[in-house]
Amino acid sequence: MVNFTLKNIPEYLHLKLKEMARHNRRSLNNEILARLEVNLQTNSPQASDILTKARSIRKKMSIHLTQQKLDEFKTKGRT
User: Fold this and answer.
1) Which of these, 1, 26, 55, 74, could form a disulfide with 30 (CB 3.0-4.6 Å)?
2) What is the pTM of this model?
């Protein structure tokens, strides 16, 4: 593991981080690490991966929805 030192942190930012750490029941160090991890994460899912997963789930559903069936559901009860 690498040690990292931050200097000249504005007081308002330090207080906000401490408050968020308390709220999330973390140490200040762990709060900063968690926030860095989330904000620097580069493994965002690709649209194609999301679409593939959605299609897989749709195949497992007992109801096979067509555009006509979706339109019927949308308009049902709207007279």
Assistant:
1) 26
2) 0.51
